[in-house]
Amino acid sequence: MDCARGIAMLLVVLGHCYMTLEDPVNRFVLSFHMPVFFFLSGMCVKITDGTFAAWAFKKARSLLVPQITLAVIVFAYSATSQGVSVFTLIESLLVWFLPVLYICMLLFWWLTRLAGNSVKAWLLALCFVMTAAPLVDLLGIDLCPIRPETVLASLFFFCFGYVWRLVDLKTNTFAKSGMWAAVVFLVPVLFALSQMNAPIVMYEGSFGFWPLYFLTAMIGKLWVCVLGRLLEEIKFLVWLGRTSIVMYVVYFRFISLLRAVVVRVLPVAGLSLGANEMAVLLFVSSMVILVPLVNLCDKYLGFLFGKGVLRSISGNRPE
């Protein structure tokens, strides 16, 4: 699961290196990369017997603390480029992913009290949530930036991940040759499906044709998980998966800053790059800088990302 999360994180960074949502590669990435995170979070979630308040507090520490760190970074960037306003403050506080994941955690607690460990009950819940998401979208309820249809779509994949673990489905029961064949085969399938739908922009509540969105995201989730199983020996991907929240917080505005710099420097250097060449340049440049930066933040500033208390410079983690 760590490796799969690392692969998804690489796709997130790559997608943000493209200039437009309409770019074919970006549409491919957008069609499934965020559902993967919700699915894996659902697979990892552990039910506790405590109260709802205790659950909410525990998840707030791991999800809303890094959200505050992200908000500080986003607000500083926005204030520098756009000036200080109430709008920029609210926009900074409610960058969508971690708040939506937190809401999914809260809703999941109540669903566990209703469904328990019954697979049939969870399948009914999945059908209900899958149906409710497009219906809410049709109502046009505008609660930007946290949109109800986005919460429901995310909750579906989160609960699906939990059900996947509940029924103990495994990918390692298949031969590696067959898994590699599936990974290669699914790439053109995913690409074709992603181009058939509108660009998926979850933070805007834009899902295009809902059945096609769910189909593409489900296949994409499977593709990432199988690929994660095949590449689980690659330590970098596992590390990236384990530090994905730190990477998410640090990279979010760094990509925008790097892109702004590169766009201004290239004409001065007399260079003109196509969309793919520019994306590759941004991706490689950002990873070269971000990997050591994320490593330092994870080691010494983990408390800013909901990962425990401050570590000493010697690297010893307090018990």
Description of the molecule:
The longest helix is centred in the first third of the chain and has 31 residues, at 52-82. The chain has 13 helices and no strands. It has one domain (2-305). The protein has helices at 2-16, 24-30, 33-44, 52-82, 86-93, 97-115, 119-139, 148-166, 176-196, 210-230, 235-242, 244-268, 275-300. 73% of the residues lie in helices and 0% in strands. The protein is mainly alpha-helical.
The number of helical segments is 13
The pLDDT mean sits at: 90
Please summarize the sheet with the most strands. Answer: none
Percent helix among the residues?
A: over 70%
Assembly form of the protein = single chain
The chain-level structural class is mainly alpha
**Which consecutive residue ranges, at least 5 long each, have pLDDT under 50?**
309-319
Number of domains: 1
Strand content: under 5%
Specify the overall morphology: globular
Q: Whole-number radius of gyration?
A: 20 Å
Q: Summarize the helix and strand pattern as letters.
A: HHHHHHHHHHHHH
Number of strand segments: 0
Report how far the terminal alpha carbons are from each other. Answer: 26 Å
List the helices and strands and how they pair.
Blueprint: H1 2-16, H2 24-30, H3 33-44, H4 52-82, H5 86-93, H6 97-115, H7 119-139, H8 148-166, H9 176-196, H10 210-230, H11 235-242, H12 244-268, H13 275-300
Helix pairs in contact: 1-2, 1-3, 1-10, 1-11, 1-12, 1-13, 2-9, 3-8, 3-10, 4-5, 4-6, 4-12, 6-8, 7-8, 9-10, 12-13
